[in-house]
Amino acid sequence: MKPVTVPALLASGRTADVYLVDDRRVLRRYRAGGDVAAEAEVMRHLRASGYPVPAVHRADGPDLVLERLVGPTLAEAYVRGDVDTTDGARLLADLHARLHALPAARSSDPDVRILHLDLHPENVVLTPAGPVVIDWANATEGPAELDTAMTALILAEVATDRDTPLSTPARELLVGYLAATGPARLLAGAATLRADTGPLDAARLAEATALVRGLSAG
Ligand SMILES: Nc1ncnc2c1ncn2[C@@H]1O[C@H](COP(=O)(O)OP(=O)(O)O)[C@@H](O)[C@H]1O
Ligand SMILES: [Mg+2]
């Protein structure tokens, strides 16, 4: 009789559990169910365009079988002190700039770009071959500055959280990120989206938004 094997749980994010399939592949499964079809489509498009995303082997309901990435997240490397603030901020800004340089898959409007809308240090894996962007659940098409405003806002959410030792490093990263990208012009739009998709209540979100606005004003 063939023994039953239970795949090893590699990581649990906010929405998904990630299991090891074998040396080269992982299974990323949404805990709440759902359909990964759109996410898989954008990842395949980006990979074909030369953007650093994991290869998609299979997409089925809430399950994605992905190329396994090996390396720390940018968040882990930054907290350990292996990546400094300037390099971490520039890396996030550079990954955005490279994404927004690509033509959209659906729209032919030159001002419409592919957006990640959740590009923060936990969604960047530092592999030996270079940084790779994961977690394309929120990806869509729209104005590039909405994406950069969203990253600034997500960093500000951590920076304004009094209950985490990460607030100071997050604030430093936010300052560096805004220095690299320029002021967050589409902040109001990002805040509206984040009210629906993010973890914070209205008062906390307003606090984070105010920090980005203040820093953007110089
Ligand atoms: N392709 C992959 N290879 C190895 N680990 C991965 C891969 N994709 C995700 N992970 C791990 O799983 C965690 C959660 O994945 P993520 O896609 O960010 O889901 P969530 O929406 O839950 O944040 C990541 O922080 C990372 O540690
Ligand atoms: Mg994630």
Automatic annotation (TrEMBL):
Superkingdom of this protein's organism: Bacteria
Stretches assigned to the Aminoglycoside phosphotransferase domain: 10-105
InterPro entries: AGP_Transferase, Aminoglycoside_PTrfase, Kinase-like_dom_sf
Protein name (record): Phosphotransferase
SUPFAM superfamilies, alphabetized: Protein kinase-like (PK-like)
Species for this entry: Micromonospora coerulea
